[in-house]
Amino acid sequence: MAPGMSRLLARVTFVAGTCCATACAVASCTSDEGSEPPPEADAGNEEAPPPTTTEPVDAGVHVEHPDAAPFDGGPRDVVCESSRCATALVTTLGANANDRAEGFCALLNDGTVACWGANGGGQLGRGDDAGSLDGPSAERVVGIEGATRLDHTCALDKTGAVRCWGTGPHLRDGGGTITTDRTPVTLPLAPVATMGIGAEVGCAVVDEGIVCWGRNFHGQVAPFTSSAPGTALAPAPVDLPLGAPIRALVVSKASFVLREDGTLVSWGANPPLGRLSSLFPDPTPTPIDLAGVSSLDSSYESACATVAGIGYCWGDIVERLHEYVNPAAPRIDRALPEPVVTPEPIVRIATTRSMYTRGTYGIMFTTPQRWCAVGASGAIYCWGFNESGQAGDGTKLDVLSDAVKVQGLPGPAADVKTTPNATCALLTSGKVYCWGSNYYGQLGSGNLKVPSLTPQEVALP
After folding, report:
1. What are phi and psi of 130, to 5 degrees?
2. Quick check: 123 pLDDT over 80?
3. If we measure between CA atoms, which residue out of 61, 22, 45, 103 comes closest to residue 312?
4. Are 248 and 340 within one domain?
């Protein structure tokens, strides 16, 4: 690899990034039966012309393009074309930090939710009698009606009630203990306006402000300093700095608040804090130096956002296949948001975590992360890890440095979601298409272990 090429992600150039170490092993091959995720894991049209309004710059440097028209595009709305229609799409969570998180859920236009894929932690919500069998077909979560919003395996309804299924901080005991619930349970919270639910921590906006709860490994739940790491804590208020109303909450190893004015606040683990801090973790909610944010995605130790058609990413970013890692040593490849250059302006960006695999003598290696973005035209572009064809261009090249356009989508996309081994897109028609590995049924095709290098439609119930 030529000098500097390790910084290239998708014609997506992280200019101020930290150079990666030399890869420790050659790329591996996959079979036609689909790519099984690593056995041990720690812990998504017409070709648009290349944009002329973005340039890679050093992190933290403001970019101005005086000769370019301002980008005023945003995510496209879903307009249902049939009675089987999805209005939102999310990924599921694994049973714990070491479990597979290879599944998807869709909010349907009738207020119900359908899920498919891995089910080791009950994340498909099919009831206590369904067991933990993976689900290759999209089926409705039992007992969910009137849902208006999804975050992973939690649904918010029009009354402000939050119901969750799978494995997570479901407040079954009034505290932050992690439980597995194959049938949805109602969280004992005051009426909620919006929520962000992670594998071990949940946060919600209520009348009094933000409350968070769960296992406090990363300083995301108060009291931040007086509780031992990992202590399960009941909902407690978060003291946010003054600012505009809250638009969204995103929870991974750090917690993020996206305000209506496009500003971000973060606290928790570092990475993916997105700002300079001498604390690890940093429990104090503090603004990130990134303005005009329209969308945000975070997975474990990495995060990405869109600003005026440009993607910005930060955190632990693994670019090479089989890179040696020391899991006990914190790594921050990019502490601050850095711009990426994509084939056209983008309105959404999705990221995944890197996965650790244990080799000979317990040595840990990584599989690279991957990213997908929705362009202003509605086209989808993917790059990064592609061992199972999850980039959607018909290839199974191990790692894609350049963004490729997903082939075969019958219409423009409203959103895209990614797991390490599969990708699903929500089209503006309300249809859902998936591609990549199908080892756990995450393509929703009705079959297990039959992968697809190009998008195929999910049969929604």
Report:
1. -80, -15
2. yes
3. 61
4. no
Number of domains, the chain = 2
Distance between CA 10 and CA 403 in Å, rounded? Answer: 4
Range 37-47 average pLDDT = 34
* pLDDT value at 445 more than 60: yes
pLDDT at res. 34: 40
- pLDDT mean over 452-460: 97
Summarize pLDDT for 404-444 with one digit per residue, the tens: 999 999 999 999 999 999 999 999 999 999 999 999 999 99
Whose tokens are 């191990």? That residue is 398
Angle in degrees, CA 321, 322, 325, rounded to 5: 120
For residue 129, what is the domain's CATH number? 2.130.10.30
Task: Identify which of 440, 346, 434 has the alpha carbon closest to the alpha carbon of residue 390.
Answer: 434
pLDDT of 135 strictly over 70 = yes
Q: What is the residue-wise DSSP string for 347-416?
A: EEEEE---EEEE-GGG-EEEE--EEEEEETTS-EEEEEE-TTSTTSSS---SEEEEEEEPP--SS-EEEE
Do 109 and 40 share a domain, yes or no?
A: no
pLDDT at 265: 98
As a whole number of Å, the end-to-end CA separation of the chain is: 47
**CA dihedral defined by 130, 133, 137, 140, rounded to 10 degrees?**
30
What pTM, to 2 d.p., does this model score? 0.83
Residue 96 neighbours by CB distance under 10 Å: 16
- Residue 51 CB neighbours (<10 A): 20
What is the extent of the structural domain holding 332? 1-58+308-461
